[in-house]
Design a protein that fits this description.
The complex is a heterodimer.
Chain A lengths: L34 H25 L3 H4 L14 H7 L3 H32 L3 H13 L8 H10 L6 H24 L4 H9 L4 H12 L1 H17 L2 H6 L8 H12 L3 H21 L1 H13 L1
Chain B lengths: L18 H21 L2 E2 L7 E2 L3 H8 L1 H32 L4 H10 L7 H11 L15 H29 L3 H9 L4 H12 L1 H15 L3 H7 L11 H11 L3 H26 L12
Helix pairs in contact in B: 1-12, 2-12, 3-6, 3-9, 5-10, 6-9, 9-12, 11-12
The chains are: A mainly alpha, B mainly alpha.
Amino acid sequence: MAHDTLPHPVKTPRRDRPPAPAPRHRQFWPRRVNPLAGLGSVLWLAVVIVPIYAMISASLTRQDEALGRNALQPPTRPTLDNYNTVLNSGFGHFLANTAIVAAAVVGIVLVLCTPLAYVAVRTRTRWSGAAFRLFLLGVAIPAQAVVVPLYLMIAKLNLYDSLLAVILPTAAFAMPVSVLVLTGTLRDISEELYEAMALDGASPLRMLFQLTIPLAKGGISTVVIYAALQAWNGFLFPLIFTQSDGPRVLTLGLFNYVSQFGVNIPALLASVVLSGIPIFAVYLVARRALVGGLMGVGGK
Amino acid sequence: MSAPGAAPRTGRPHAVWALPGVLFFAFFAVAPMVLAFLLSFTEWNGLGDPRPVGLANWRRLLDDPRLTQSLWLTVLLTVVSWAFQTVVALLLGVWAAGRQRNRAILSAVFFVPFLLSSTAIALLFYALLDPNFGIVQKDTLGSSNGAFLAIVFVGGWQFIPFHTLIYQGGARQIPPVLYQAAAIDGAGRYRQFVSVTLPQLRHTITTSSVLMVVGSLTYFETVLILTQGGPGTDTAILPYLMYEAGFKSYDFGYASAIASFLVAAATALSLLLVRLSGFGAMRSVREGM
């Protein structure tokens, strides 16, 4: 998806097209039946579906029925009580915090990484090369490795137990992959287009906004999705840098439910189901962008 | 912000444009790495100021039998997870790159686990593996092998959808001409897979492997929620060991020594992978296709 908008001569097959009008040569490889592959994919389907089914069915089970019962059994008297319990335990507040963190992280990453990638691709100086390599190395830094010094820094900056304490490091750690994805996309924009704009006397800034960004939509949407997922998934930074209910994000809220609900596993699973619903809704609406954007990571 | 003095005739941006991003990243990611290394020579309980103690933490670390165990576990977890995820994701991804209708539906379902956060997934399996409640009415997490395999499985369950997608994207970019040529040469399905698909996917395999290897260092949530490093210390991978030393025992100097170790290992790994793959060569992967 990342390259569909690019004026590039290399063929980029469009995805998700109805199968009928595919050109003749395209039918060539997948058409034959492959029983082994079919079997494997059905097997994996079971691996995916069974836990999800067990989770949903358990979340609808009354707590007194839950223990000693096999998780694969459907509930005899389904109930929504567990969902009520969870919704009354700050779920909405945690979700709102996560949304704030995600929006802020996406904003910071886009504002910082777009010019970075632009420079890395468009200028060939020693400095821009060094900056690019810095981010390349950064891809491997696990957040765990720096959490102790970050804790010290966050405390000294007086940010402890605030949403900013989660937002700033999360954004920083989303940057390396974002820079890689963006440089990958920008590199495919042809030099002639820049030259044409330069002849018209366009400034680099104008080129960025009128040429680069419009043509890099695919890469940019990948970065948006990636950064948002990082924020959505974040656990360690919130765990260490926040403490009170005020700035608590959803992942940490879920983690706290373990102690709050104790052995009330149905309520715990209801909280997991609820946490999946918002992003599942996004998935239903924007499936193509989500999937296509992430697919672009591997196309590079 | 605008620095038009650069080279207006070619319209190239000034390198200064990259500065805000570099500074931000340097402050919140690179500086802490350096600081972690410095803190490893101190003793600090989280309150007051760190006190220098020389090499004490490092000596202690090298004598700690838990480090050897943890290191071995981390490597084992990475290798086993990589093998499991690569095999499944590669096969599913290449299969899903085909065009029948049921494939589209199935790949949509395959993607669903990725929509849950690591925390949610760890909690889900925490419940499903509960001996009194779960699918397997056995104390899986109470046995050392069971706990290890559970972590590998849960990691795969979460990340295989993503890597499948990456392979699907990669496989769709393989020109069909290559398959036609192979078929004309009399290559069967298996032969085509080995001689066309795999070599054509080498960049994809590298990208996906880098992400997997780096990602397996972040199985922290899964370990924390599923096993707490247990039974005993049998699933205490390096990041978990670091977390325990720092945020449970408030021994931040020692935790920093473990963290520095982690940074060194991760950096070495990424350098190796970048070398092997030409990932950093700044060239378009479409070249030579």
